[in-house]
């Protein structure tokens, strides 16, 4: 059984594969094409990161140890994740023009009680998260480099859950995040 046609000459086959080159006419056009190409690449990388494709993650987020640290932090509710909302609340309380008698009590409650308690809570939580994740990564991935994993987990625990990037793949409690429809 033959293929029913002669083998094409090399020059004909190469000619069909070639596509016209859209070389820029000047430097301004070259920069415009470069910016367009970079914009497309960034959009593709962002979509890949949002999907959870590890090829598009920055180096700090790659690897099984970092994935484990992300999932461990995302599957728990820790005190430090409420730091930013609490800070915004404190700022709002200090900006609201309360009557003079009440303003003193608000400032005392915020400055001498609320803020220090939150800072100690964040510090203790960060140290605990860092220590725990390092220990678990060393047990689960014996050959993996654990350098920076604890700090990575502690910083992720400080972020508001909705703003974490890469996005969480597990819900608090450890269940997987349901796919978006």
SSE layout:
Elements: H1 10-17, H2 27-51, H3 64-74, H4 83-95, H5 100-140, H6 149-158
Helix pairs in contact: 3-6, 4-5, 5-6
Question: Can you characterise this structure?
Answer:
The structure is a single chain. It is built from 6 helices and no strands. The chain is mainly alpha-helical. Helices cover 60% and strands 0% of the residues. The protein starts with 9 loop residues before the first helix and ends in a 23-residue tail after the last helix. The protein has helices at 10-17, 27-51, 64-74, 83-95, 100-140, 149-158. The longest helix has 41 residues, at 100-140.
In oligomeric terms, what are we looking at? single chain
Q: What are the low-pLDDT stretches, counting only 5+ consecutive residues below 50?
A: none
Structural class call reads mainly alpha
Q: What Rg is obtained from the alpha carbons, in whole angstroms?
A: 27 Å
Range of strand content: under 5%
Q: How can the largest sheet be summarized?
A: none
Overall mean pLDDT stands at 89
Count of DSSP H/I helices: 6
Number of strands: 0
What level of helicity do the residues show? Answer: 55-70%
Tertiary shape: elongated
Order of helices and strands: HHHHHH
Separation of the first and last Cα atoms:
50 Å
């Amino acid at each position: 059984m033959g293929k029913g046609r002669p083998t094409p000459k090399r020059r004909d086959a190469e000619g069909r594969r070639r596509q016209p080159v859209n070389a820029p006419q000047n430097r301004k056009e070259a920069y415009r094409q470069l910016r367009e190409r970079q914009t497309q690449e960034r959009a593709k990388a962002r979509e890949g990161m949002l999907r959870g494709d590890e090829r598009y993650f920055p180096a700090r987020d790659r690897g099984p140890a970092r994935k484990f640290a992300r999932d461990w932090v995302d599957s728990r509710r820790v005190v430090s994740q409420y730091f930013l909302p609490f800070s915004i609340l404190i700022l709002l309380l200090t900006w609201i023009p309360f009557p003079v008698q009440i303003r003193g009590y608000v400032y005392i409650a915020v400055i001498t009680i609320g803020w220090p308690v939150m800072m100690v809570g964040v510090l203790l939580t960060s140290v605990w998260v860092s220590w725990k994740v390092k220990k678990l990564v060393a047990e689960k991935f014996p050959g993996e480099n654990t350098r920076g994993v604890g700090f990575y987990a502690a910083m992720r625990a400080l972020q508001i859950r909705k703003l974490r990037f890469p996005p969480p793949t597990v819900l608090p409690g450890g269940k997987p995040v349901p796919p978006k429809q």
